[in-house]
Amino acid sequence: KFLVNDEIPWSDLEVIGVFRDVAASVSFAGWTPISEALELILIRCPDELPTNYGCVSWNQVLHESRLFTLRYIERGETRALFYKEKAKI
């Protein structure tokens, strides 16, 4: 139901907007913890699932969209996944 010309219009998806909104308000040196975005997705888009886009996780959705860079960053004694929107060309 999301395909346009046999492709997912990633940048137009509401859930991508949530990732962008969180990045605009909660980022550290340009990087945003994916956990922060996932909390807001549960609230704003409770019916959204990564499987709606042929993915098994939200990490994969970010990767498949090709709109974001993912990176594990050490935070204290834990390693957390962060994301950053790629520069628009």
Report on this model:
There is one protein chain. Helix content is 35%, strand content 20%. It has 89 residues and is an alpha+beta fold. It has a three-stranded antiparallel β-sheet. A hairpin with a 2-residue loop joins β2 and β3 (78-85). α1 (14-25) crosses α2 (34-44). It is globular and about 45 Å long. The termini are far apart. The relative contact order is 0.20. The mean pLDDT is 91.
Quick overview:
Helices cover 35% and strands 20% of the residues. The chain is of the alpha+beta class.
Total number of strands: 3
Helical run tally: 3
Terminal Cα span: 28 Å
Question: How do the strands line up in the largest sheet?
Answer: 1-3-2
What proportion of the residues is helical, as a percent range? 25-40%
Q: Mean pLDDT, as a whole number? A: 91
Enumerate the spans where pLDDT stays under 50 for 5 or more consecutive residues. none
Radius of gyration, in angstroms, nearest whole number: 13 Å
* Beta-strand proportion: 15-25%
Major sheet: 3 strands, antiparallel
Oligomer: single chain
Global structural class: alpha+beta
